[in-house]
Amino acid sequence: MKKILIGLLIASAVSSCDIDRLPYTSMDEENIVSNPDAMVTGTYAQLKAWSDPMHRLGEYAGDNMMIRGSSTDAFYEFISYARTPNNYRLQNFWDSGYKAIAQSSNVIKMFAEGQSPEMDNKIGECYYIRGMMYFYLCRAFGKPYYQSPETNLGVPIVNGTPEDVFNDLNLPDRASVKDTYAQAISDLKKAEALMTLDKGAAYASKGAAQAMLSRIYLYMSGTYKNPNAEYARLSVEYADKVINSGKYVLLGREQFMKYNTFRPEDNKETIFAVKRVASEFSGDDHYYGIGGMYSNIGGMGWGEMYSSAKYIDLLNETGRNDWRPDHYTIVDARAAFIEPTYSKDDAGKYTTVFRFIKQDVPKKAGDPVTLSYVQAPATINGNTVTCKDGDNVYTLTAVNAAQQTYKIAYADGKTYTGMIDYYISLNRAYPQFYIVKCSREGEESQLHSPVISRLGEIYLNRAEANAKLGNYGAALNDLNTIRNRSIVNGGYTSIDAASASKLIDKERQLELAYQAERSYDVFRNGDPLNRTYPGPQKQFEDILPTDFRVTYFIPQDAINSYPGKLTQNPTSN
């Protein structure tokens, strides 16, 4: 009886399925063929391991978050842009992605189409997973599409275990970015055609394939300055399919503010999410998982990463979001996913402070200029507001007294703007602006099912693609659909060629924060990334979209074990 080897490129399907377990490295073909559900379920299981490093690569390299200090954990390279090929989290991302590709490819090869709608749907789900993996791998390891996709390298296209694993193991080198995207698109279009059943947001579906195609074509649509009209039109076309299907509904403002608490299957806006359940989590997972780095809830989580001052400023741009328990006012619904850790004094009272960000004087010549938070105890006496920092007492000048924002003429000769607030407890020198968008699903403290696609993104995809086509009225309608959901009467009156990129980019940052999209969004449109806010990152460094560090190195272990040539990314500009 023929054996199908699993240890090399493919993950064991029986690891998460209720079928008889066979020897660890092999599984009888007859048992596989009689259990297609086991193979498909095992393919989904790979996404659970993949989704953790996927999030860290995409989000930590952006400007929505900051960390309390440097770390010996491998993820710190994603934050610091100190790229190395010897990174176990990067290796996990690569391995899990290719295991999902291998397992989905083997299902596609084993089972014939046309047997039944149910079987076709299963095959379609595997095409979706494979196409999605190629896209996510390529955007991490390949340069942005607008930069010579014909010659820049993507990732190897390896669709399944070779027929003869002992004599046919000379696998291909990396395909071009263009060809890798073409493979992803081909798979997703095949998935779109095969899937006719909708089993809920925890499973791939026709809508999920269309949503991913809308995003991929957007990534191919060039920059605002040099758009590609063909791909922009295709992004609009696939966004139309999703939006006009009527299968998905934007949550209302109040429900949206609780988005993180809903299970994927209970959320009408979620198109596809990697489903996690509490039974999969041990205590350590609650600490080391995505949400556990952003917060500590019920004693679970490290809470070492916080919302960046840049993101907080964006949330407050239309009007102050006041998180104080006795003043709680949310202007931008996205602010509901931020929870500052206000602390009380020994008497059980909150301390009123004036919090602002100041520029520090370098300690010695050659040291970089840095920014830091100040929380100076403040006193309000009628219309007079003062604060004390060290031996200095300052009288503040109102910027917006109703929202308690003020200016301070500081001792260093500079003027800074800040706000009256309660004291937020510090981790090292940083106020803890906890992020809970990746926590609290189903009332489990750090349970989170990473969202891959949701309807809010699709409206923003269509807005950007239409703007690149010069259809500014249509772009404005979609942009305001999202903006008015989060900010009551917050819509823009107009956008044009001069303002479209700024306004749409800002809304994508606000809306898609902590969904692993931000760094890719910046670079694919040819923009630099700037993280001028407190934190251990290089605060005044512009990371250009052409910088070699925008792409991650191929993991060295993958190169060493690869049966064939596997070309590394450039190590300098």
UniProtKB/TrEMBL annotation:
Keywords: Cell outer membrane, Membrane, Signal. InterPro entries: SusD-like_N, SusD_RagB_dom, TPR-like_helical_dom_sf. It comes from the Bacteria. Residues 268-570 form the RagB/SusD domain. It holds the Pfam family SusD-like_3. Its main location: membrane. Residues 46-218 form the SusD-like N-terminal domain. It is found in: Cell outer membrane. Belongs to the SusD family. This is RagB/SusD family nutrient uptake outer membrane protein. It comes from Sphingobacterium zeae.
